[in-house]
Amino acid sequence: MLLEKIEHVNDIKKINKEDYGALAQEIRNFLIEKISVTGGHLGSNLGAVELTMALHLALNLPEDKIIWDVGHQSYTHKILTGRKEGFDGLRQFRGMSGFPKRKESICDAFDTGHSSTSISAGLGLVKARDIKGEKSTVVSVIGDGSLTGGMAYEALNNAAKTETNFIIVLNDNNMSISENVGGVSKYLNNIRTAAGYLDLKEGIYNALKGTKTGDNMVNRLRRAKSSFKQLVIPGMLFEDMGITYLGPVDGHNIDGLVRIIQEAKRVKGPVMIHALTQKGKGYAPAERHPARFHGAEPFEIDTGIPSHPRNEANYTDIFSTVMCKLGQRDERIVAITAAMPDGTGLKRFRNMYPLRFFDVGIAEEHAVTFAAGLAAGGLKPIVAVYSSFLQRAYDQILHDVCIQNLPVIFAVDRAGLVGSDGETHQGIFDFTYLSGIPNMNICAPKNKWELSDMLKFAVGLNMPIAIRYPRGAAYAGLKEYRAPIEYGRAEWIYKESGIALFAVGSMVKTAEGVRNILKEKGFQVSLINGRFIKPIDEDALLDACADHRMIVSMEENVACGGYGEKLLDCMNRNGRTNQYLNISLPDAYVEHGNVEVLKRDVGIDADSIAERIERMLKDGQKA
């Protein structure tokens, strides 16, 4: 087994050249075997095996630096830096992360998780290198999907002024999570399909090399090829920006990749290597269904079918169904996604109403201002986006939507703890970053029926509103409690005395469990579904203060700026001195792991909450 020889960084350089292909196959087999058990990002990693091997052969880590855009394609890099033993605990609590982590290895030059950041970070490392007088090579690896993000072009524009070496590798597989869209994708397709140029170049080089005269001519041709490409490939966007362009090259040809990386290291300035790869390469199910294997659940290797197929509808499924119904009822409703029609549940809406569906690529900022323009034009835009990605559009929400009080609806998926993707993907800040914006309204459903009701309510609100809902199975309990949604009003589910649990969103289900535990011990417990995080229902809170000894707030958001702080502020402003307990997430980044395990770890599971309430009552603590 060749993989047994890879125990430390740079061990790949001890592998015989004729064994590179066999090693690549062993790596693919290893990834398929391990990810079939743990789940993880399979397709992107299978497509980047040879590219990663070539980078490790051509560079000298950790002195040289590789920055992986997003980072979900860094598994082979982890194997080649001596971390293959960590794959048994991949993305599990206290196990190895599915993304680059500086705290995990000195060979991870920069933590990543969101797209379009690698060129900016790489340029920063280049400038730091130059100021310190070092001679290392810095490589940013970015996918063609990430290249649709505006930040990448801001960085390219800045990088063009650099007069020292900086290598950008464009890993071009025509996919991000879903198939790429837009002008950048079209431009790269023109380059990919310039077969006449590629064949002619290869034919000339092969015919001439091998003799002294021929080799000299090859060198002259290489120096002249930028001018030749200007005639054959339309636009030459990167060359026009001042970035030397090398390619396109076969991203699965290790020898060719090593040669072009060595060539790129000699360029005195920014240079882009355009490598064509196949997402899911080497595993037929992933080749056929690259989107499905972007972030795979555990699966059967023979078929690619999930090992534990879900039978229950999740919140994204509910959103998908309701969107189609809303689109049928109101022709003003339009849907926007940032490169995630599948992940956000908008694929069915796209198929039914293609003229009212917009995939803007990995461009959340543009998505939000585009939605504001649609709203200003009299339509009802619904922006479906993951909580952690909506963070990227904060200024646009504040400046372009809320100042104008435009009726944009934000369907905020993957809110709260999302699990295995870890710190960069946990949706635990949206209450905080949205609630400080004037004119913004925020609500969260307790179950699948309430998500449907909130979407229908939001369409008629004529104000900015965010509806945030979690990842995973949609809660089907409390079906009998479905009071009509009123603006800014909470819903009393159980009304007793003693302890009042004010819970929002996913925490209503948890609050049910807390109530059951406390009831068995003789406590009287009310349960209030807060529904609205902004504005909160101050009347319901003050009513509860009148006949409850303790007020408990429950949310799946960090404490700072969250729902609980708003309740406590209301109590303080109105002179209420009831015992108060804020159940929320710590003001910290939460690592990767199973969601239920994470909840226990941070103390927001039903048993931990009930224990804290009992302890506080016993101690007689005040707010």
Describe the structure concisely.
By secondary structure, the protein is α/β, with parallel strands linked by helices.
What features would you describe in this structure?
The chain has 623 residues and is α/β, with parallel strands linked by helices. The chain contains 24 helices and 17 strands. Strands 7-6-8-9-11-10-15 form a 7-stranded mixed beta sheet, with helices on both faces. Strands 1-2-3-5-4 form a 5-stranded parallel beta sheet, with helices on both faces. Helix 14 (347-352) links the parallel strand 6 (333-337) and strand 7 (357-359). The longest helix has 21 residues, at 212-232. The radius of gyration is 27 Å and the shape is elongated. 50% of the residues are buried. Mean pLDDT is 91; it is low at 192-198 and 226-232.
Largest sheet: 7 strands, mixed
**Rg, nearest Å:** 27 Å
Uncertain segments are 192-198, 226-232
Strand order of the largest sheet: 7-6-8-9-11-10-15
How many H/I helices? 24
Cα shape: elongated
Overall pLDDT level:
91
Percent helix: 40-55%
Distance between the termini: 62 Å
Backbone structural class? alpha/beta
